Amino acid sequence: MSRADVIVVGAGISGLTAAWRLAQAGKRVRVLEANPRVGGRTLNYRFATGEVVEVGGQWVGPTQQRILGLLAELGLETFPLWNQGDNLTLFGGKLKPYRGTIPRFAPHVLLDVLQAQLRLDRLARQIPLDDPSRHPRALEWDRISFAEWIRRALKTAHGRQVMELVSGAVFAAAPHELSFLHVLFYVRSGTNLDTLLGVQDGAQQDRIVGGSQRISEELAARLGDAVRLDEPVRALRQDASGVELITDSGSHSAARAIFAVPPTQLLRITQAPLLPGWRDQLLQRLPQGAVVKCMALYATPFWRANGQSGQATSERGPVRLTFDNSVPGSPRGVLMGFIEGDEARQWSASSAESRRAVVLECFARYFGAAALQPLDYVDKCWADEPFARGCYAALFPAGLWTGGAARLREPLGRLHFAGTETATRWMGYFDGAVEAGERAAAEVLQQL
Amino acid sequence: MSRADVIVVGAGISGLTAAWRLAQAGKRVRVLEANPRVGGRTLNYRFATGEVVEVGGQWVGPTQQRILGLLAELGLETFPLWNQGDNLTLFGGKLKPYRGTIPRFAPHVLLDVLQAQLRLDRLARQIPLDDPSRHPRALEWDRISFAEWIRRALKTAHGRQVMELVSGAVFAAAPHELSFLHVLFYVRSGTNLDTLLGVQDGAQQDRIVGGSQRISEELAARLGDAVRLDEPVRALRQDASGVELITDSGSHSAARAIFAVPPTQLLRITQAPLLPGWRDQLLQRLPQGAVVKCMALYATPFWRANGQSGQATSERGPVRLTFDNSVPGSPRGVLMGFIEGDEARQWSASSAESRRAVVLECFARYFGAAALQPLDYVDKCWADEPFARGCYAALFPAGLWTGGAARLREPLGRLHFAGTETATRWMGYFDGAVEAGERAAAEVLQQL
């Protein structure tokens, strides 16, 4: 095969952005994608009735300048998530309506949660985004889990439950899986907690017309036959003369390679020379979160008629968080729900039928018996996805940042690293994927 | 190639025990070992002057009935670790001699440490070894790290430092990397804390004549040409008719396979069908500990002449724990030291020369300037070892046991799982490796 200047591994938003910037700079690029499709952790699904929804990542929001810029460049448009009517919260066994981001808790619970939020935001503002371990209190904060901080900082059981829900919603993980320093980093990386959690003015504000996989499809269209699907990289070699990547179908050579894959995936590739031990050890400690994203299609968005937004947060699982994911222009309605963490792993292991049943039961608990009669249903267990093995992103457990995790974006010889997990701003989001892809492309351009 | 009844992947103690039991039962076995040697996480090293020491696991002790039985069966003998004279402890900037397991702390520190030890032992006695998550308080204990428990349970800074040293010595990891439930499990799995930490009557009591790698060499000799070296398994397939394992040199078929490798290694093998998502997610959360094992050879064991045992524990790194690893019959002396956790990853990344210099500096700090003049020096960075990628064993972080980790020893179709991480008694030790190998062999025999 002809030799490229750069091979990008992974045709998600990060890898394709890197490849497109390199192509724009006149470099010969090739993108090797393991799946028979582009998009990485974004994935469109079309219901039989025509509505396109996303079973992977879907949102963009304010302050995400890089992805918003890319959307404009690609001619893609956004529309707001449906956000009218009452939200619902099920806590203390009672279902209650509320407006905005924070439910109408009892005053002492509200105080507890707001104080915690203020403390998180205040501490987060001090975290150096390029390397959280440079903060003077980094060791202290990196040695405690988010769970330990929650137990210390929140005074009410209900308040602690709310923070667990926050952990699930933002990380697809339980608080004990996360370094507190990482949570502070993530809050600053995503502006502040209100922005991370919010719909209006927040990270869940807007959707992409045609579905978020369109971002990768548009980039791939521009790259043409440089993008090779069904090419899982099984082995890599590098030496003074270049990089060679072995896929199931053959060998690909280039001067440099960019890996734009979830961090753990690099462990699954046979390496010559081997990654340095310290780096392999860090990657052994960067698991993906776990989420099942579930959607039911209904003849109408019946909850709207009841004055409801379709947004619910709940103390009862497995679906603890829902949204109205209906598509403009269609008379039909879509309810969307997330199953996270341990529950995601458990329900991934169950039959599709029982998962559908329990999800609809959750929807009915929040929005009434009409939710039990969908026209259609779809879900996606991201732990089962062959080349992601989890979502939304990698979890940084206690000790990882102060153990050198910032060095995971450092090149190793001719290998460069992109993917949203290597971003400083909006890590874990589309915007971070773009930042990481552009940074890796710039690194490579300096070397070629 | 001819088809075997069973293929065992990994020629460490666990895999070879499994293979030998199956061969004894008349089955046709094949062992595929990725390295050019047997032994797994045991590895002998011969100094130029003839002394054989171990740069991997080395000890056996009382209550380890399975490995002691295997040693007898193989005709291997043991000898006690040198354990005469004063131990040393460097804490609070002062080097002090002591006898036994626990240094002569100030009374309030001693009280603090002993109370913690009693609490650990008392709680550990209740843990079900087959599945710690069955304990009524499992969720509570699995959601806190060992670090959080230490901060709560110990009242003195010095006492907390001692527990951190315990964590390094037993797990090659910092307390924040470990679920408190796992620590309780591990203490019971290894009898109690005194046994885990002790030399006399403890897990560090005895060594194997000729070095611990002899265990695997003896087993391999009995298995003859069934053991194939330099055969890293890169891919596995299973279907109704059997299992196929692809190595760099060819394909191997059998009715069943036993994986006797560190848990993370399974992720590095291309699988068809893929592991279930929940299981892949658990394996993403089971990193190996990190240790550099260091030894210096001297003309004489000069510390003995000073009335010292060669055993030191220290608040200062990178070597915080030492032993006299001299070999009977030689006039020369061997000092051995461990670098653990973050320090192991850092020093693995440094030059061999600078690592040697800092280790000898540590030895001199404890045993005097004579330690700066060795005849020879050797160390082993286990994070760099291609098919271990860490030692001593896998770390179970918060949430893993209650997330279903006991199921990691369940077969997946025709795949069975051994390795010390799947043991109930003495997990992480040779004894657990034997238990796991024999249990996996029994499982397979039931199916053949």
From TrEMBL, chains A, B:
SUPFAM superfamilies: FAD-linked reductases, C-terminal domain, FAD/NAD(P)-binding domain. Residues 13-445 form the Amine oxidase domain. It comes from the Bacteria. Keywords: Oxidoreductase. The keyword Cytoplasm does not apply. Its cofactor is FAD. Signal peptide: none annotated. Belongs to the flavin monoamine oxidase family. This is Flavin monoamine oxidase family protein. It comes from Zestomonas insulae.
